[in-house]
């Protein structure tokens, strides 16, 4: 269960170091900083108020330091918006590098507390750029970076950053910095759900922070120990630690930490079934506070505890009401988490872009260095006469000319298809959008043509791929000759070409007839062959609001040309006069685990050519499909918390079959391999065939295939037994302990209601009890999750069989049980401890 983390506590990590001035005012400023950064906020505020009449006597840097202390105290007191506004203004001032890094560190945490993730990640990037000017502040900013990576789920990277910061402060012998660094490591382990490791780091934090005199972080460490104890079921111990944390947080005036400690106290009282009235009072006050703060994740946690308390008292109606409120708050929190993740990915992208720009600047710097070197050599060789000067000038000119030619060549290659020398897909779309908008503004006709080679696969199969390449090359040259600058022509991919003309459909058809007349026999390696093309034409008639829709209509006309016998031109604008073409059909395709890498060209073609596209895939695959099929229908909307999945499957089945029965060409895209552990794809294909409608299934890369590759397992070595976890329990199947056993959807083990989307300990314990019949408790098993993005790494967590009920699960987690004999030692352990390959 997720718990609300008092993230504002990290604001304390950024204390300012004393300046070198020795006058009385400087001493007063230092004292204010010392009081603020040792949690004596009230004394600090009082001294700031007393210093107000003399602010004009302070140097600009001293005034900035005083303002920083005031804004930081304001944030710790819970006034996030006011503190954020003030810090934004302070960062616009001319600050010394060290102070600027400290301000960035605090501002990033305040922005994170205010859930302004783009601003937080932007400030992080800006702050890191100042580290070379302020190396003494590296540990503080690394701690902030660790914290933000923890929030976006990059726990491995967060742990590495926190440990780097810890190494820096341990070598510097700074007690308070050590206190802060230990808290960062503990937080990263907590979010990684390594509860025992997190508890060990929290004890070190308490010891270091107590020694440093940091009351807030000492209280935070005790809160962390209590939270870890509660997570491991030690509620009596958790209650004691949480009460200590509450008392110390209230004494230090640390409001956020005090409310977090109350949650742990309430949970421990409920789970211990004692002092339930006190728990009720605490939770009611806590809920009111978090609603004022609009902290959705904390609201969800508080509502769940209230629901649990109502269950303890037998008030099921109240419990249900609290669970509904918790679900609503969880949805809002998940939306914020997605925004955090997207902001993080955007920063990652921007960082890579900056690195490329830096590399370009380095290249330009090298060129400038060459020019400087050449200039110096010219000066040294000036005495040798005009001949040497002329040679040097010629060499420099050649260098610059070569650089210009290289840049021009790279630009050309980025815009053109290397085989046909026509524009590539991206450039056609880019130029076409401009031309299409211009035509709409001026009222000129605009026509799209989509053409491809008939039976191109047979050309490759009969004459070889060299012949196929020559056919594409020749067709590209003929298209270039016919268009001749009067339009935009490019290769869309494979054997498909797109031509965009600022003219009407009649002239476009005339151009295609000239192109068809230009096509002739081709000879490759002594073999002569011919080919024909089919084309679809569509003129913008006011219904096509976008260029993408216009090209899609032309592509549909091309499909009709193929259906009518190929080697012809079909105009989409003549559909009203054309005889109806039977188009009903169903194809089910797989998106693979990583859509960008795994989806096949055949599947992409089916998606593009279908009249109706249904998608049941992860959000990233759905977004990529929507980019070229904006009309794609998301089947994921049929799922809902608490809803019977069998009802969901019936609704998806009905939605697909309704379009198939309406006589449309339908493509249904399913995650991974559509025929593995999937009921609906097989059912709709079977139904369509029974009704006399053409239906087939195209395979995809499944999670099982990724599992074998990521874990280095050959299923043919010992054999493999693959079962759904609930099926294994209910049907009392016996595992083959001499071979590999895979149990899918292990998080849903024992769910006979088909309504759960999360793991429950009782079901997992029942699964472990069943497996203990054949395997010892310490038998090593693997929890596997395939990576769905190129920037992700697969999960391969190894643990004893007996620890399965306390592990972390996603809905798609797979349990891998190696052989119970000596053969198990042959399974590769090529996955590092951080989960990467």
UniProtKB/TrEMBL annotation:
Cofactor(s) recorded for this entry are: Mg(2+)
Alphabetically, the GO molecular function entries are:
diguanylate cyclase activity; methyltransferase activity
Q: Which reaction does it catalyse?
A: 2 GTP = 3',3'-c-di-GMP + 2 diphosphate
Q: Per its UniProt entry, which superkingdom is the organism in?
A: Bacteria
Where the record annotates domain GGDEF, the positions are 444-574
BP GO annotations: cell adhesion involved in single-species biofilm formation; negative regulation of bacterial-type flagellum-dependent cell motility
Q: Which Pfam families does the record cross-reference, listed alphabetically?
A: GGDEF, TP_methylase
EC number(s) from the headed UniProt entry = 2.7.7.65
Protein known as: diguanylate cyclase
Q: Which organism's genome codes for this protein? A: Luteimonas salinisoli
* Taxon lineage: Bacteria, Pseudomonadati, Pseudomonadota, Gammaproteobacteria, Lysobacterales
């Amino acid at each position: 269960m997720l718990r609300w983390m008092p993230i504002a506590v990290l604001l304390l990590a950024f204390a300012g170091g004393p300046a070198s001035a020795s006058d009385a005012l400087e001493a007063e400023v230092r004292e204010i900083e010392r009081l603020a950064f040792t949690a004596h906020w009230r004394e600090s505020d009082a001294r700031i108020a007393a210093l107000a009449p003399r602010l004009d006597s302070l140097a600009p840097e001293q005034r900035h330091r005083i303002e920083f202390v005031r804004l930081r105290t304001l944030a710790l007191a819970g006034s996030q918006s006011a503190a954020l506004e003030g810090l934004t203004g302070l960062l616009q001032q001319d600050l010394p590098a060290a102070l600027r890094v400290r301000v960035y560190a605090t501002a990033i945490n305040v922005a994170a507390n205010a859930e302004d993730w783009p601003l937080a990640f932007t400030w992080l990037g800006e702050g890191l750029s100042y580290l070379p000017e302020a190396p003494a502040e590296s540990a503080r900013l690394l701690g902030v970076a660790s914290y933000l990576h923890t929030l976006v789920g990059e726990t491995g990277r967060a742990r590495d950053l926190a440990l780097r910061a810890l190494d820096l402060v341990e070598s510097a012998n700074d007690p308070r910095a050590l206190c802060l660094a230990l808290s960062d490591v503990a937080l990263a382990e907590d979010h990684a759900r390594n509860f025992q490791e997190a508890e060990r780091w929290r004890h070190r934090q308490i010891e270091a922070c107590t020694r440093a005199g940091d009351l807030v972080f000492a209280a935070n460490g005790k809160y962390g120990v209590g939270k870890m104890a509660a997570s491991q079921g030690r509620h009596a111990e958790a209650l004691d630690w949480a009460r200590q944390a509450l008392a110390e947080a209230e004494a230090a005036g640390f409001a956020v930490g005090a409310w977090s400690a109350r949650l742990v106290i309430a949970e421990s009282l409920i789970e211990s079934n004692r002092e339930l009235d006190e728990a009720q009072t605490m939770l009611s006050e806590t809920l009111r506070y978090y609603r004022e703060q609009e902290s959705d994740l904390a609201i969800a946690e508080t509502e769940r505890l209230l629901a649990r308390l109502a269950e303890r008292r037998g008030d099921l109606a109240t419990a249900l009401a609290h669970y509904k409120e918790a679900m609503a708050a969880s949805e809002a929190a998940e939306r914020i988490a997605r925004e955090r993740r997207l902001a993080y990915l955007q920063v990652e992208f921007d960082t890579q872009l900056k690195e490329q720009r830096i590399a370009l600047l380095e290249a330009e710097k090298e060129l400038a260095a060459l020019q400087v070197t050449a200039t110096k050599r010219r000066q040294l060789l000036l005495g040798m006469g005009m001949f040497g000067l002329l040679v040097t000038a010629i060499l420099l000119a050649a260098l610059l000319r070569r650089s210009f030619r290289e840049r021009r060549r790279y630009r050309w290659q980025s815009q053109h298809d290397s085989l046909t020398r026509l524009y590539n897909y991206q450039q056609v779309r880019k130029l076409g959008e401009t031309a299409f908008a211009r035509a709409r503004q001026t009222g000129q006709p605009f026509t799209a043509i989509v053409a491809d080679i008939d039976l191109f696969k047979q050309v490759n199969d009969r004459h070889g791929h060299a012949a196929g390449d020559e056919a594409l090359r020749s067709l590209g040259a003929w298209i270039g000759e016919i268009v001749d600058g009067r339009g935009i022509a490019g290769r869309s991919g494979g054997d498909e070409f797109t031509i965009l003309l600022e003219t009407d459909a009649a002239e476009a058809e005339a151009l295609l007839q000239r192109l068809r007349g230009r096509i002739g026999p081709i000879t490759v390696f002594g073999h002569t062959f011919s080919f024909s093309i089919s084309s679809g034409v569509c003129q913008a008639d006011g219904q096509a609001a976008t260029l993408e829709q216009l090209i899609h209509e032309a592509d549909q006309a091309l499909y009709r040309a193929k259906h009518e016998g190929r080697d012809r031109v079909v105009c989409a604008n003549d559909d009203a006069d054309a005889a109806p073409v039977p188009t009903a059909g169903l194809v089910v395709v797989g998106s693979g685990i990583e859509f960008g890498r795994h989806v096949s060209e055949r599947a992409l073609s089916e998606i593009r050519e279908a009249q109706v596209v249904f998608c049941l895939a992860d959000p990233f695959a759905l977004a990529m499909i929507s980019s070229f099929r904006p009309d794609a229908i998301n089947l994921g909307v049929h799922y809902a918390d608490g809803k019977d999945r069998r009802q969901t499957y019936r609704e998806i089945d009905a939605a697909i079959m309704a379009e198939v029965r309406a006589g449309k060409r339908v493509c249904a895209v399913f995650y991974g391999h559509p025929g593995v552990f999937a009921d609906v794809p097989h059912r709709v294909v079977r139904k369509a065939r029974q009704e006399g409608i053409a239906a087939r299934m195209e395979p995809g890369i499944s999670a099982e295939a990724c599992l074998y590759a990521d874990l280095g397992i050959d299923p043919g070595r010992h054999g493999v037994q693959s079962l759904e976890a609930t099926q294994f329990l209910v049907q009392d199947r016996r595992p083959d302990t001499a071979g590999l056993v895979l149990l899918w959807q292990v998080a849903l083990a024992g769910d006979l209601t088909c309504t759960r989307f999360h793991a429950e300990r009782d079901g997992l314990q029942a699964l472990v009890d069943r497996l203990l019949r054949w395997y010892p408790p310490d038998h090593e098993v693997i929890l596997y999750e395939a990576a769905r993005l190129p920037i992700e790494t697969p999960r391969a967590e190894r643990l004893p069989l007996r620890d399965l009920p306390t592990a972390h699960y996603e809905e798609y987690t797979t349990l891998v049980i190696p052989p119970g004999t000596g053969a198990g030692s042959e399974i590769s352990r090529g996955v590092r401890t951080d989960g990467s390959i």
